[in-house]
Design a protein that fits this description.
By secondary structure, the protein is an alpha/beta fold. It contains eleven helices and eight strands. The strands form two sheets. A four-stranded parallel beta sheet has the order 2-1-3-4, with helices on both faces. It has a four-stranded parallel beta sheet with strand order 6-5-7-8, with helices on both faces. The longest helix has 14 residues, at 168-181. This is Asp/Glu/hydantoin racemase. InterPro entries: Iso_Racemase_Enz_sf, MaiA/AMDase. Pfam families: Amdase.
């Protein structure tokens, strides 16, 4: 932000799948006061490997267009879309989008890893709305990043608009089902995957019940994005509890 723009609100840029109806509302609800959220969209209807691969071709263009709005930082807000090609693809997305937008950029998959590392989480349970093939790719990515995935279970949904109809209560119920099914395995954290899964509102109650941090895709992305800016985030969960984690 230039000196001439010092009095204007901080502008957060989001690059989201065209069928995502959750990322923008959750960002606007939990972003720092006075922050504005601006989105560019990439064509996606079904959450499948082939569709996500095709969608990623629009990522850099989205960053370029958000640069026209003079945003202060940009997020590629799609979890599986940023881990699809394994370790390193997320970092490449961040570099390419940041260069196109001319500002710092984060990608959700990498943001999740940073969030889990900040919470000192090693053994995790993962809850998703995805099909089994995407769950397998997510497990592979997280394990390559150094996490032990104790369990990963999805809902088997392909249509992204259907994922968007899930509510925080659905996320709460699914997490408890997965964790209770693996009571014999201790975990350091739960990861609720998908930027189109309404889940950030469920974090506070889940952490109180489970006694471990719960990270969501949008929560991790917002946290990571705001680390690049002189601002803090008032959102539920252990990830946002320590002021040192906001700078």
């Amino acid at each position: 932000m230039s000196d001439d723009d010092s009095d204007r609100p901080v502008r957060l840029g989001l690059i989201v799948p065209s069928s995502n109806t959750t990322a923008e509302p959750e960002f606007r609800e939990f972003a720092p006061e006075g922050t504005t959220v601006h989105a560019a969209r990439m064509a996606l209807e079904s959450v499948t490997v082939d569709a996500l691969d095709e969608m990623s071709h629009d990522a850099v263009r989205g960053g370029e267009l958000l640069g026209h709005a003079d945003v202060d930082a940009v997020a590629y807000a799609c979890t599986t879309g940023s881990l699809l090609h394994g370790p390193g693809f997320d970092a490449e997305l961040e570099a390419e989008i940041g260069e196109a937008a001319g500002v710092p950029a984060v990608a959700t998959a990498r943001s999740v890893c940073r969030a889990l590392e900040a919470l000192d989480a090693e053994r995790i349970a993962v809850v998703t709305p995805y099909t089994a093939d995407l769950d397998a790719k997510e497990r592979e990515f997280l394990e390559a990043a150094g996490f032990e995935v104790v369990a990963i279970e999805g809902r088997g949904i392909e249509a992204n608009t259907e994922i968007g109809t899930l509510e925080p209560e659905d996320a709460h119920e699914q997490v408890l089902e997965v964790v209770n099914a693996h009571l014999a395995a201790s975990i350091d954290a739960v990861f609720l995957s998908c930027t189109n899964y309404q889940s950030l509102e469920a974090v506070g109650d889940l952490e109180a019940e489970l006694g471990v941090p719960v990270v969501t895709s949008n929560g991790a992305t917002l946290w990571d994005l705001c680390r690049h800016l002189d601002t803090t985030v008032d959102a539920p969960g252990a990830l946002f509890a320590e002021p040192s984690r906001h700078v």
